[in-house]
Specification:
It is built from 13 helices and 18 strands. By secondary structure, the chain is of the alpha+beta class. Strands 1-2-6-3-7-17 form a six-stranded mixed β-sheet, sandwiched between helices. The chain has a four-stranded antiparallel β-sheet with strand order 11-13-9-14. The protein is globular and about 80 Å long.
């Protein structure tokens, strides 16, 4: 990587652009402005779209940039996000989370990969592409947001009003992973996502566990019972109506997904325990690519400090998220889970559902699409092993909305690897991965 590119990469990473944290609005706004100036220096015309303020809270800016090519030439729309996950837990970071640090061939920093690193590498490929005089006819548009990690609420609300501005032939996204050993992977589908908080309240205060033990209901015990009720003993989801309408994958999709699957041993090496989550009797690929999930992201109740504090907690809450597959709608899935929680609410507890984010549904793309054929050819030139197809268990909810608003065919190719540790402490991205993303941008834009 050239020194000038590394310097700019580090400048971008230093912005503490945690889009979900209102206290970081200044950081996200400055990050968006930095990217606007960078794109303008490359030849784009940029503008910052300021989302409507709701409930007294302002959202991070949305950056739109455009470079007009030849009349009648194809139009490529590039999507990415500049917001990052919170750095917590801070104690587990080996380097400062917002001070990019080179260790060996990797850059360590929050956002080094997801998605500042991948997006910036791709944009550098766009810059390289524009530097080749013979390739300047393509129309290029870029849309970058600062809320992807928390649901893309502002962009999803705004996108339907920007149809003319977003209109394109292909939607390019570099925010996913390659297969093992950096073998190229085309994402043919993504799961949807929705999340919320469930809160239980019981006594009017934390109580002495001796004086009130056996009398007062315990919120900590109650939240444990409630979230445990979401699944059957075999790991399947126990919520009535949650799976209604699911569209199963085709046999061709199942075969292609299994062909690109990692072994159980590889997952064990990655996560440090057996990959036994989800429903027993289904393969890892089935559970991660084609099945929905309900996951407990965190449970909080009572005392958690040093030593003991013998209390009966008055309140408890859990953060829950759902990954959804085609055929499910976030609204219907949330309604089913809400009915289940209300029905299973432990005695003596008051239940409330808060911080609901409906997100978006999942989707699958046809394997025979022309854009997939073109991508397969290009990736075959980059790697003699050729590309595989993946149905990513993760979600980029706004892709479905952008697909509808722009009329573009999505092409999702990323260069992440498990060792990048995205969403975890010590996130990193290698110089090799950065170079692959950059090269991919040049080659696919040239092919278009």
């Amino acid at each position: 990587m050239e020194d000038a590119v590394l310097k700019e990469y580090f400048e971008l990473l230093k912005f503490e652009s945690v889009g979900a944290d209102p206290a970081k609005l200044r950081d996200t706004s400055q990050c968006a402005l930095w990217l606007k100036r960078w794109l303008e220096a490359v030849g784009f015309t940029g503008e910052l779209l300021m989302p409507e303020i709701k409930d007294g809270k302002a959202a991070p800016p949305i950056l739109f940039a455009e470079r007009t090519g030849d009349e009648g030439a194809p139009t490529a729309l590039v999507y990415g996000h500049y917001d990052v996950q919170p750095a917590d837990p801070l104690a587990e970071w080996k380097t400062p989370p917002f001070e990019p640090t080179v260790v060996g061939e990797r850059v360590y920093c929050r956002g080094a990969q997801d998605d500042k690193g991948q997006t910036f590498a791709f944009l550098n490929g766009v810059k390289d592409f524009l530097g080749a005089e013979t390739h300047r006819g393509l129309n290029l548009k870029v849309i970058l947001e600062g809320q992807e990690e928390s649901g893309s609420a502002a962009l999803m609300a705004l996108a339907p009003t920007l149809r003319k501005k977003l209109a394109a032939d292909v939607l390019l996204v570099c925010d996913t992973s390659a297969a093992a050993d950096l073998r190229p992977a085309i994402v043919a589908g993504l799961r949807g996502v929705a999340h919320f908080t469930v809160r239980l309240t019981g006594p009017n205060r934390d109580l002495h566990s001796g004086e009130y033990g056996g009398i007062a209901p315990n919120a900590a015990q109650a939240i444990a019972e409630l979230v445990a009720s979401l699944h059957n003993p075999d790991g399947s989801i126990a919520v009535a109506g949650f799976r209604d309408g699911i569209e199963p994958p085709s046999e061709a999709e199942r075969r292609a997904a299994e062909a690109a699957a990692q072994s159980e041993e590889a997952y064990y090496s990655d996560i440090g325990c057996a990959p036994v989550g989800g429903q027993q009797g289904k393969t890892i690929t089935q559970r991660n690519s084609f099945e929905p999930t309900i996951e407990v992201n965190g449970i909080h109740a009572g005392y958690g400090g040093a030593g003991a504090k013998t209390v009966i907690p008055a309140e408890a809450f859990a953060k829950l998220s759902m990954r959804l597959v085609p055929g499910q709608t976030p609204r219907a899935a949330l309604a089913a889970v809400k009915r289940h929680l209300e029905d299973k609410c432990p005695r003596g507890m008051k239940l409330s559902i808060e911080e609901v984010n409906e997100g978006a549904g999942g989707f699958r793309l046809p394997l025979a699409s022309p854009i997939f054929r073109l991508a397969t050819e290009v990736l075959g030139e980059m790697d003699p092993r050729g590309a595989v197809f993946q149905w990513d268990g993760a979600s980029i909810p706004v892709v479905s909305v952008l697909r509808e608003a722009s009329g573009a065919a999505p092409l999702i190719v990323g260069w992440g690897q498990a060792e990048d540790r995205i969403h975890s402490p010590n996130e990193s991205y290698s110089f090799t991965q950065f170079a692959r993303a950059r090269e991919w941008a040049v080659k696919i834009l040239s092919a278009l």
